[in-house]
Design brief:
The chain is mainly alpha-helical. The protein has a single domain, classed as Alpha/alpha barrel (Glycosyltransferase), CATH 1.50.10.10. It contains 21 helices and 18 strands. The strands form eight sheets. Strands 3-4-5 form a three-stranded antiparallel β-sheet. A hairpin with a 5-residue loop joins β17 and β18. The longest helix has 27 residues. The protein is globular, with a radius of gyration of 26 Å. Pathway: Protein modification; protein glycosylation. Pfam families: Glyco_hydro_47 (PF01532). It is a single-pass type II membrane protein. Belongs to the glycosyl hydrolase 47 family.
Length: 654
């Protein structure tokens, strides 16, 4: 029903439908005048409207063969019903993981688990229903003229911004590139190490060649069914595996494959489409991958595409607070948040994982707008009071205030902390604000979240309104490397403490691998009920080729050269070869405790971008991508340190 058709129900007394019903029927009720009756009538009609929507959804379950209907309708619904990333904010990940793939980010059910999938989809339907009712009520309380004015203002704002972007980025300025150190290395002197590194390169070839054979141009590969796989995280944008793999191909000296990928980017990578995308996922994978490829190769096409996509993402920041939306239609510029995210809040690990790439976009484009956007996020956060010094995972972009007090160093929170530290390092240690925010944050994390099990395993719990949930996610395992990487710049007397803390987290995550049948770790593991570092729920037992554990091994090896980290890394290589390798590539597993492999049939793009890259670096000499010259974004894409001798970004007046 049109909004204008319902508005008389909430209009002033005596007007429209509300006035007519109140005057005609109200006189027969004792003690109620016309005005009181109209209020009752409004409430009744709102209930009827709510019941009608509920009935529409409920009717699905009474139709013939409802299980097939649910499978076809609910499980293949529009992107609006899908959570973020297979990976990192997480929601199971670093924000990317609340969806079907990082969230870097919190999947609630194991891949392919029909019961869990049904429960998740029904929960999302209920949340969407409740949210729609709230929004409808708020909208209907406005006058029709106000609604029309809001729509016109939003359209005008988006149009002006898009015009400004097209004018401001038509010409890219010359870039003052400092000589890059360690982009190419020699062979390791030790023959055994050289052989292991060559094996990891062969794994990359197997993954790449099968992607090329069965899914070229698609986002990801289905290695068992041998076809293409696309997640709603990228909308209609294609080629995630190609862009994600560029820098791995380069450092492994797979020159022919790199040239193939570059040609595809030049001819086929297209952002001019009507597509709703995850801002977080597109930033870390596509923007990060393109920037990295540009710095390594110097090929201008990569800079051009990175800046073009960066411009497309700018309307996500059009919120009252400047905290960006999670989802953005890159054609219309209209954004929104995941409906499941605490009343439509933005997610810490998503809006907090834009800083590194956007600073480089300003440098590469000559326009400070990208840096301004992410620095404003810092301003908003610094003006907020932190409960116990902690950063909750949810922030309302309209009010600029925290939503529910849920704190995690895993999915939904993880890469925010990573980017504080790396912003300090990438600035050549001039970004003192980032340094302070990082060390203040990890001090609070150590006080309130880090605990030891009965048998001495150090883990990072989750904090929910002051109560701890003694669960640690695979995504959280990146923190061991983070603590170690920041140790040199820790407050006086704490350098060794943070290096040791990193080692303890690495040991705990290794135990989560070692206590499974396949020797690869589950999505999450618990420390309660007499259990330590073991997944106790079926929807936490899967492994989707995640990199966080070997990421920590890489940092610990580089910073300590303790041989156990190479030993543990090789154990992971052997497990991947034995249990995840199939003829068509590499697949994730549904249950790491089950003796018979059950494949999820997805070769994640981050397997090529992160997992194989970190393993390759562990068996390389330290002169390949030395840590004092390079920063890895949360997708392991390479960003050079912006040294003091590189000129500051100047506004492109033209």
């Amino acid at each position: 029903m049109p909004v204008g058709g319902l508005s008389p129900l909430f209009s002033p007394a005596g007007s429209g439908l509300g006035g007519g019903l109140g005057g005609g029927l109200g006189g027969g009720r004792k003690g109620s005048g016309p005005a009181a009756f109209r209020l009752t009538e409004k409430f009744v009609l709102l209930l009827v409207f709510s019941a009608f929507i509920t009935l529409c959804f409920g009717a699905i379950f009474f139709l013939p063969d409802s299980s097939k209907l649910l499978s076809g309708v609910l499980f293949h619904s529009s992107p609006a019903l899908q959570p973020p990333a297979d990976r990192k904010p997480g929601p199971g990940a670093r924000a990317e993981d609340a969806a079907d793939g990082r969230a870097r980010r919190g999947e609630e059910g194991a891949p392919g688990d029909p019961a869990a999938a049904l429960e998740d989809n029904l929960a999302r339907i209920r949340e969407n229903h409740e949210r729609a009712l709230r929004e409808a009520k708020e909208t209907l309380q406005k006058l029709p003229e106000e609604i029309q004015r809001d729509i016109l203002m939003e359209k005008e704002k988006v149009a002006q911004d898009q015009l400004s972007n097209r004018v401001g980025f038509k010409m890219l300025p010359p870039v003052d590139l400092a000589p890059l150190v360690g982009a190419i290395d020699g062979e390791p002197a030790d023959a055994a190490i050289r052989e292991k590194r060559e094996k990891i390169k062969e794994m990359m070839k197997h993954a790449w060649n099968n992607y090329k054979r069965y899914a070229w141009g698609k986002n990801e590969l289905k290695p068992v069914s041998k076809g293409g796989h696309s997640s709603s995280l990228f909308g209609n944008i294609q080629g995630a595996t190609i862009v994600d793999a560029l820098d791995t191909l380069f450092i492994m000296k797979m020159k022919d494959e790199f040239e193939e990928a570059k040609a595809w980017v030049d001819e086929n990578l297209n952002f001019n489409m009507n597509a709703e995308v995850s801002v977080f996922e597109v930033n870390i994978r596509f923007v990060g991958g393109l920037i990295s490829a540009y710095y390594l190769s110097g090929e201008e096409i990569f800079r051009k595409k990175a800046v073009e996509l960066g411009v497309k993402l700018l309307p996500a920041f059009h919120t009252p607070s400047g905290i960006p939306w999670a989802l953005l239609n890159i054609k219309s510029g209209i954004g929104r948040n995941w409906p499941w995210a605490s009343g439509g809040s933005s997610i810490l690990a998503e809006f907090g994982t834009l800083h590194l790439e956007f600073i480089h976009l300003s440098y590469l484009s000559g326009n400070p707008i990208f840096a301004d956007k992410v620095m404003n996020i810092r301003t908003v956060l610094n003006n907020l009071e932190k409960p116990q010094g902690l950063y909750p995972n949810y922030l309302n972009p309209n009010s600029g205030q925290w939503a529910q007090y849920h704190v995690s160093v895993g999915g939904l929170g993880d890469s925010f902390y990573e980017y504080l530290l790396k912003a300090w390092l990438m600035s050549d240690k001039t970004d003192l604000q980032a340094k302070k925010m990082y060390f203040d944050a990890i001090k609070a994390i150590e006080t309130h979240l880090i605990r030891k099990s009965r048998n001495g395993l150090t883990y990072i719990a989750e904090w929910k309104g002051g109560l701890l949930e003694h669960k640690m996610g695979h995504l959280t395992c990146f923190a061991g490397g983070m603590f170690a990487l920041g140790a040199d710049d820790a407050p006086e007397g704490l350098t060794q403490h943070y290096l040791q803390l990193g080692a303890e987290i690495a040991r705990t995550c290794h135990e989560s691998y070692n206590r499974t049948f396949v020797k690869l770790g589950p999505e999450a593991f618990r420390f309660d009920g007499g259990v330590e570092a073991i997944a106790t729920r079926q929807n936490e037992k899967y492994y989707i080729l995640r990199p966080e554990v070997v990421e920590t091994y890489m940092y610990m090896w580089r910073l300590t050269h303790d041989p156990k980290y190479r030993k543990w890394a090789w154990e992971a290589v052997e497990a991947l070869e034995k249990h995840c390798r199939v003829k068509g590539g590499y697949s994730g597993l549904r249950d790491v405790y089950f003796h018979k492999e059950s494949y999820d049939d997805v070769q994640q793009s981050f397997f090529l971008a992160e997992t194989l890259k970190y393993l390759y670096l562990i068996f390389s000499d330290d002169d390949l991508l030395p840590l004092e010259h390079w920063i890895f974004n949360t997708e392991a894409h390479l960003l050079p340190v912006l040294s003091r001798n590189i000129k500051k970004v100047e506004v492109n007046e033209k």
